[in-house]
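Incident log, structure service

09:12 report received: a user says their structure output differs between two submissions of the same chain.
09:20 pulled the input from the user's history:
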Amino acid sequence: MPAQLLDLSSESMISTAAGAAITSWNLAATALYGWQPQEALGRPLAELLGAYPDSAAEELRSRGIWQGCVERRRRDGTATTVRVRLASCTGADDEWMEVSDPVDTAHPAEVALAASEYRYRNLFGAVAASFWELDFSGVGVLLRQLREQGITDVAAHLRANPAIVRAMMRSTRIVDINDRSIEMFGPGTKRDLITTPLDRYWPKASTGDFTESVLSAIGGKPRHVAETRMRARDGREFDVLFTVSFLPGTVGTGTLLVGFTDITDRVQATRQRDEASTRRKMLLDVPTLALSELAAPDTRAMFSRLRAEGVTDIRAYIDAHPGFVDQLAGNLRFTSVNDAAVRLYGARSADELIGRSLTGLIQPGCEVLRRSIEGSYDCEMVFQAEVRMFRLDGTPFDTLFCRVSNPDPASAEVLVAQIDISEQVKARVEIERMRQQASHASRIALLGQLSASIVHEISQPVTAIAMHAAAAERLARAPEPALEKLGKITGQIGQNALRVGKIIQRIRALAANREMPMVPLSLTDILAETRLLLRQELTERGVQVTLSRDANVPEVCGDRIQLQQLLANLMVNAIQAMEASPHGKRRIDLTLRTRDGLVLAEVADSGPGLSADFVAAPFQSFRTTKPDGLGIGLTICRSIAEAHNGRLEVRDRADGPGAIFTLVLPAVGSAT
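09:34 re-ran on a clean worker, output below:
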């Protein structure tokens, strides 16, 4: 049986494990025998009060019930005779429940009165907490009015309408308080506190906590416990543990007992402990960490002024006031440093740093300091970045800079943790230098391989120039030269000459110790330009070209001439592969597709397809089927694709004879 129900009885009620250890003990038992429940629970009944007679156990086993008078010991050592009714609990043969009262008691009501007096004496006197007795009937009236208005979801309605909850506070009457309440919620007399409206004690920010207590009451919960903030009569606010018990039949009709325990010191200690724990953790994680505390009271006041003026975008404000960052650097001054910080800044002692500002220790207009200031203004607790700073003698050093703001908004101090990463930065620079050298050496080696391919690459535009020049000569000697056609041919000669020049420029860039320019490009445009460059050869060979593409093909990052060179080489290979095919069946299908952050450019021909030897090793150098070929065209194409973080794929067509060469490149912005 729940302990709350046992406490409602005016008779002593005790349960035991088959007459041995005590398992429950109500308030009437405390009033009768003197022991507190926590003193009695778990102890043997015979040791505490005295044993049952042997006949009790025998009769319980046979009839399930026994009654009689026994002598009992009280806590103060005195003896008393009690009338006991003992029963074995239904469904629990090992639990006995006794109900007893003194033989000399005139009426059970006297025991109930003693238990009641004991309860309230402990609550109002012995406990070092504030206790209020509240008349809650006004809240019941307001709740009934809400239901009459058709409000079905009372919880949602009260949470959305704090004004109704404040009205419930005002309708609640304070009946009685204990002495501790006067100390906690004063100044004033007991009468002053009782006559003060209840809502005066509840700050608006704590309205939600009162709401939840009301919802606990109407939800049938036996009690409600929460941490909240309360207000004393002089306006002082403090943290409390708020407890209230709801006895059956009292919600909305009777009085409730409410308790407040001041936990201000505990909350403050927890906050300080968390701050100290954070700092200790940083120290333990990195034993060589340079720690500094910097104070900037002027900066705190400046931030407050800017917020009062309505400045919400601190970045725009700093853009409009270029000297703001350096001004704040001059306001930030060291208040304490550890030994690692002294060594980091090259000081002889902490005294050389205490009181010094960051001016001269950080670059003017430092971008990292600016980002830290922006984060601090936006109430970001932690900021971290790499930054170059200067020691007291002007020597630069690189550091991992971490700023941790004080959680107290009124504090003007910040904690700065730093690690000297100068050696790591030097190592990164050296690695990058070595990478560039290796890249240069690789390009020189590739250039050696490409020396034989220069003729191969330039032969296409040079051959086109020769063919166009011969055609232009024939047109010029005609009796009536076709000037419009002659103009187009000379234009083609100029375009191919420019192409030769750009190829030579790329070969020079490859030999120089500099990176190729990688910029966002449209493969659609590059395919169109490549078709234009090869228009004459496509026309003379009778090759039909089709292009299909997805609706939105993203850009790729690369070098225009190299990608144009790659696609032109694939198209020329396709043209040459179809030399044995009838003119009407020579076709190149160009396709642009996107898939999983990739852009795919396909060049498909209608030639005889690929041999088994070629499919086994498509990129083998110096292997060719052309009488005048060098066998390095596809090798160069693959190198260009890989230089663009892509790849070149080769396969036979599935819809008929022919081959498909696919250039796969990552789209701009893709993580692929």
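09:41 both user submissions now match this output. Likely a transient worker issue. Closing.
09:42 reviewer note: Residues 422-450 form the longest helix (29 residues). Residues 627-631 have pLDDT under 50 and may be disordered.
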